[in-house]
Amino acid sequence: MGRLCTFHVKYATKLCLPLPKALHTSPRLKTGFVLQGHIFSSMSQQASVYDWDSETQGWILGSFFYGYILTQIPGGYLARKYGAKWLFGIGILCTVIFTLLTPVAADLGAGYLIAVRVLEGIGEGVSYPAMHAMWASWAPPLERSRLLTISYTGAQLGTVVALPLSGQICFYLDWTYVFYIFGAVGLHWFVLWAYFVSNSPSLHKRISEDEKTYIMASLKNELSPTTDYIPWTSILKSLPLWAIVVAHFSYNWTFYTLLTLLPTYMNDILGFSIQQNGMLSALPYLGCWLLALLGGQLADLLREKYLIRTVIVRKAFTIVGMVGPAVFLVAAGYTGCNYVLAIAFLTLSSSLGGVSASGFNINHLDIAPSYAGILLGITNSFATIPGMVGPVIARSLTKSNTIPEWQIVFYISAAINIFGAVFFTIFGKGTLQPWAVQRIHIR
After folding, report:
1. Which of 287, 329, 351 is nearest to 413 (CA)?
2. In this predicted model, what pLDDT tens digit does every residue of 133-175 receive, in sequence order?
3. Quick one: signal sequence residues (predicted)?
4. pLDDT number for residue 26
5. How many CB atoms neighbour CB 394 within 10 A?
6. Is the dihedral of CA 269, 271, 277, 281 positive or negative?
7. Could you give phi then psi for residue 50, rounded to 5 degrees?
8. So where are the chain's domains?
9. Dihedral angle sign, alpha carbons of residues 130, 253, 149, 13
């Protein structure tokens, strides 16, 4: 539960920008294809409005990922060598501090805001590799799906809370309070993390001896002693790893496109008010959270009770979690003025994406638990690229904010998603790889 709260805070701070940005910039819309009829007075009169064009907005949204990509592989390496607890905690603390500085940077200019977003990304870039490394020491093999999905769905829960709450804060207060409130929550989280969390069961002072013995015994044949030796050549030549890379890249293209631009789509195309925007933008992530949790339970049930091979489970959940979203994303582009149907399809698209949390998303721990943090750092480095270029490409394709332009964005995302699912289905594996059994090869 503590790790769920961790990613709740992480994504709540990350989501501070898209909704306020969508509602406090001047995008120079052409209104021919923008739906009218349910736009209401909403904006706080104290809020600053920035005259940033669509391209600048795209660079601002993507700038976080330019810092985020830099610390992925170093994060995995440092977590393995020194432990994940403080690396993760300090990384998120840096993100929190720069979140608090965001309103000041925005007032100084787009360049300053981009710089702050890059620094945020540098701090947060260690988070997933560090957490994967920590779970390698905590999650028994047959409980990985449900434990990791409970933890990582904190990301979706953070999104569900942050989007509507940001809308309410913008409406009743000032948009700057979005950053101050979530930043304050992040500071409180850091104190709790520092006090309660340990790197491994053997170091934890509050769990029972029975639980400690059970976890450590379940992992004794999977984890290797921590040494400076890392089989980089074997890792980089591993086709199962590249299957995860391709799937992760493909999934994140759609995920980050929606994450950063869904509030803009709701506001500019569907014409929702600031309060409606926040609530409705959160619906897809609420569905994603629920299906990810249910998927984690089902995946472990299939493996433990019905003895279905891990590789079959991972591939099946990846197919459902990537092809399904592609279908409904394309369908959303053809709903015309039926905004209820548009919301329904976008919600179904994102919800089905949650199923992949028990697919490729945790496959690193299946093939190389001792190097899970490093592997995630590698895959997440490639998977960060969509966050860097996806919003820029999407905004360049939607300069007039028309429905046909958004259809192109949805088609591109869907095609990439399907390709990733096919690649992982062909080349993915579910068993410990020979190069990951370190004790056999060292010295």
Report:
1. 329
2. 999 999 999 999 999 999 998 888 887 888 788 878 888 888 8
3. none
4. 44
5. 28
6. negative
7. -110, 130
8. 2-26+51-197+228-441
9. positive
Convert 396-417 to b/e letters by CB count within 10 Å (16 or more is b): eebeebbbebbeebbebbbebb
d(CA 392, CA 69): 16
**Residue type (1 letter), 435:** W
CA atoms within 13 A on the CB side of 126: 25
Cβ(241)–Cβ(375) under 8 Å?
yes
Single-letter amino acid, residue 154: G
Q: Residue 189 has which token pair?
A: 């989280």
Task: Write down the pTM of the prediction.
Answer: 0.84
**Per-residue pLDDT tens for 244-261?**
999 999 999 988 887 777
CA–CA gap between residue 296 and residue 280 (Å, rounded): 25
How far apart are alpha carbons 318 and 201 in whole angstroms? 30
Tokens of 111: 């360049």
Q: For 260-410, where are the E strands, in sequence order? A: none
- Which residue's structure tokens are 């992040």? 186
Q: DSSP alpha helices (H): ranges in 154-238?
A: 154-172, 176-196, 209-218, 232-236
pLDDT in the model for residue 28? 38
